[in-house]
Specification:
Layout (H helix, E strand, L loop, with lengths): L10 E2 L12 H12 L3 E6 L8 E3 H15 L8 E5 L4 H13 L2 E5 L5 H11 L3 E4 L7 H9 L8 E4 L3 H6 L18 E6 L9 E5 H14 L7 E4 L6 H13 L3 E5 L4 H11 L3 E4 L1 H8 L2 H6 L5 E4 L6 H11 L2 E7 L6 E4 L6 H6 L3 E2 L3 E6 L13 E7 L5 E3 L16 E9 L5 E6 L4 E3 L2 E3 L1 H9 L4 E11 L3 E10 L7 H9 L10 E4 L6 E2 L3 E2 L1 H9 L4 E2 L2
Parallel strand pairs: 2-11, 4-5, 4-6, 5-8, 6-7, 10-11, 10-12, 12-13, 13-14, 25-26
Antiparallel strand pairs: 1-17, 2-3, 8-9, 9-19, 14-15, 15-16, 17-18, 18-20, 20-21, 22-23, 24-25, 26-29, 27-28
Helix pairs in contact: 1-2, 1-3, 2-3, 7-8, 9-10, 10-12
Length: 543
């Protein structure tokens, strides 16, 4: 157990209050079905309450066993099965079925165009793909027909319109009898990273990591047993299919799967299903807060989990005030299964608003100088490194040359995120190593500037980027989404920043964008795209 004495530098060894369990994705569901078989496990979160399908734990486990048997008719243990679908209950059943079958589930964004989809399926070597053939007027069906001849490993396609018949192939029983034994250290998921630059990489995650991290996260922040948890996040991201889903199942709770993240549906599901807790990203929660009726409907909420991008301090305060909840600020990445740190119950407003808390149990953490690799002093920004059972097995690259691994010889995952650690081990994320702006030799962290700009009433969202400059190397630019407040000017925003930032940190160029920022992953802005648009004169300057 770590001593309660203050840390002397930015290295925090793991706390070890509880053992890491030898669980698998399938065994977590099996244990819940044995303990609370009659409890509602899964609710289909569509708008019409009369059309919301529901599964008990016993029913979900039975369907998952049938899915496992059906999958094994087309793929052997250890092979890879891809899943392409928006949020729907069949996704959940397929995930548990794949786990019970001992295959690795490849989670793929259904919005991929042909080029991206070909990369994902080729890199994964998937032999079977399960997909929603009705989504977007058959877009996936057309893509798979075009790509099929170029995917040598792909042997079978199963459209979800054929799902009932597919499950019928596994109707020999609703128990795991005869299914293969699956070890906790075996691969469970192949998850594509958000790929902020270049092509997304495929992180291979094992069962032990993706089951223990969500359980530990929910226990650490005090989500009670039997919770009703609303998930509006896409299941093809680890935050949805690992943190939200497997965390809920570990607590024997009810998983309400929202079909989308619109404020109206979110509010309706919270009210109708008596939701206790939910996860989300800044965009989802900003839209909820901007809808007074939705806020009033959210009276049952007690816990809100937020993360995936820099969370403005004022947003956390707004959420807690408007919804009467406690907000937990999470930090992680796909390669960490995916949560690494979180704030705790009873943390101060400053901790919740300005930090991501401290690492979960069983995780080592250090902050290093990226140039030297040395651990930096406390309260000094450097690259965050993580070590523990939750670190990925590696990247899957198919026939391509393997990418440089972010895991070093001592087992430390170099996250690429810039952070500072205080004397308690609490972490403040200051930006991305690759997003660091160096202006005239001064290091500028975009997250710090973004937090100040967001405090202005006219700003809905902001992304701060560095642009080339012939003398300074880089100059600071802010790309804005406005609330619609008339008359805001770049001069006014510069004056707003001047009382809160040093002169060299104030943006010198201001742009405005309508609609959403270009994104990869959930809530993660593709700053490289914004940078390129600004350089090419494709962004509208703010007067």
């Amino acid at each position: 157990m770590v001593s309660a004495s203050p840390l002397r530098d930015s290295y925090r060894p793991a706390e070890q209050p509880a053992a890491v369990l030898d669980t698998t994705v399938g065994s977590v569901l099996a244990q819940a079905a044995a303990a609370v078989g009659d409890r509602i496990a899964l609710v289909e979160g569509v708008t019409d309450p009369a059309r919301r399908r529901r599964w008990t734990y016993a029913g979900l486990y039975g369907d998952a066993c049938r899915a496992a048997r059906a999958i094994l008719r087309h793929a052997g243990p250890g092979e890879r099965v891809a899943l392409l679908s928006p949020n729907r209950p069949e996704w959940v059943i397929a995930q548990f079925g794949a786990a019970l079958a001992g295959v690795t589930l490849v989670t793929v964004n259904p919005g991929y165009v042909d080029r991206e989809l070909h990369h994902a399926l080729a890199v994964s070597g998937a032999v079977l793909v399960i997909y929603d053939d009705g989504w977007r007027d058959g877009q996936l069906d057309g893509s798979l027909r075009r790509l099929g001849p170029r995917l040598g490993a792909l042997r079978h396609r199963v459209p979800l319109s054929d799902w009932p018949r597919f499950l019928g192939h596994g109707s020999e029983g609703d128990s795991a009898a005869g299914l293969p034994a699956v070890a906790p250290g075996e691969p469970a998921l192949l998850q594509f990273t958000s790929g902020r630059t270049g092509t997304p990489k495929a992180a291979l995650l094992h069962h032990r990591g993706v089951t223990n991290v969500p359980r530990s996260c929910f226990e650490t922040i005090g989500i009670p047993a039997g919770t009703v948890f609303l998930n509006p996040l896409p299941l093809f991201h680890a935050a949805g299919c690992c943190t939200s889903l497997l965390g809920t199942v570990a607590r024997h709770g009810t998983f309400v799967l929202a079909a989308d993240a619109t404020p109206g549906l979110t509010a309706a599901l919270v009210a109708d299903e008596n939701v206790d807790a939910m996860g989300g990203v800044t965009t989802t929660l900003i839209r909820l807060l901007d809808n007074p009726q939705a806020c009033r409907a959210a009276s049952s909420l007690t816990h809100v989990l937020i993360g995936a991008s820099t969370v403005p301090p004022d947003l956390i305060r707004r959420i807690e005030t408007a919804l009467g909840v406690e907000v937990f600020n999470l930090y992680g990445q796909t390669e960490l299964s995916p949560v690494f740190a979180t704030t705790r119950i009873g943390d101060s407003d400053a901790d919740k608003a300005c930090t991501v808390g401290k690492p979960l149990p069983q995780a080592d953490c250090k902050i290093i100088d990226p140039a030297t690799g040395d651990v930096v002093p406390l309260n000094t920004a450097g690259e965050l490194c993580a070590r523990g059972y939750q670190v990925m097995m590696g990247y899957s690259t198919g026939p391509q040359a393997p990418p440089d691994s972010p895991v070093d010889g001592q087992g430390w995952l170099h996250t690429g995120d810039l952070a500072a650690m205080d004397h308690r081990g609490y972490l403040t994320i200051t930006g991305r190593l690759r997003d660091l702006i160096i202006r005239g030799g001064e290091n500028i962290h975009p997250a710090e500037v973004e937090a100040v700009v967001l405090a202005h009433a006219a700003i809905e969202d902001v992304a701060v980027i560095g642009l080339p400059h012939p003398v300074l190397g880089e100059t600071i630019a802010a790309v804005l989404r406005l609330h619609g407040v008339a008359g805001v000017t770049s001069a006014e925003l510069a004056r707003h920043c001047a009382s809160r930032l040093s002169r060299h940190k104030i943006p010198e160029r201001w742009f405005v964008i309508t609609g959403e920022f270009p994104q990869v992953g959930v809530g993660k802005v593709r700053k490289s795209v914004l940078r390129q648009r600004a350089v090419e004169g494709m962004l509208e300057p703010l007067p």
